[in-house]
Amino acid sequence: ETGVTQTPRHLVMGMTNKKSLKCEQHLGHNAMYWYKQSAKKPLELMFVYSLEERVENNSVPSRFSPECPNSSHLFLHLHTLQPEDSALYLCASSQERDFRGNTIYFGEGSWLTVV
Amino acid sequence: GESVGLHLPTLSVQEGDNSIINCAYSNSASDYFIWYKQESGKGPQFIIDIRSNMDKRQGQRVTVLLNKTVKHLSLQIAATQPGDSAVYFCAESNSGGYQKVTFGTGTKLQVIP
Fold first, then answer.
1. Can you give the pLDDT at residue B3?
2. How far is CA B2 from CA A2, A6, B56, B91, in A?
3. A45 close to A56: Cβ distance less than 8 angstroms
């Protein structure tokens, strides 16, 4: 149990579908992240929210749309995805203090397959 | 650009032996380093961290060594067990506004019974 819960754990969707990934952290952290993990590639940072405000968007295609309604919840809305978007999507959180970073804690991930 | 890399993609170790996983980083401004373990089908799990004002830190059966001169980081696992089989990532971070962590591709550790 990492304190970061992701649902669903597995998702298969067609290219015309709209779905959402959900993340909830129980650690009292004030920053949340979405990472993409593909085979044989380093973890790719997609989005960062600090104090519920988006602070980073690493040139992610608009078919991925994040939402952070409060400091404990993070969503990734998916629409018109491509097969190459199939990957493990990891949510993470950390506590930002005085603009100094701290350890990132990851969820178990959501395995996404686009058919 | 800045990058973090790992020397070996796969490491096989006999059960009971010590394991050493190496990592090179290129950002001289990095001041915080983390090792993560990722088991099959799971998310990365924090193992141990070290700040740049230290060169060694020990945990339970794990030790991280930092050599800032050559920008090298290593993870030592004592008395490796089958449960240690996983992919290990090193990551680096530098302070500034919000945390931004750069990960390497990972080293797969295989423990031979």
1. 45
2. 29, 30, 24, 12
3. yes
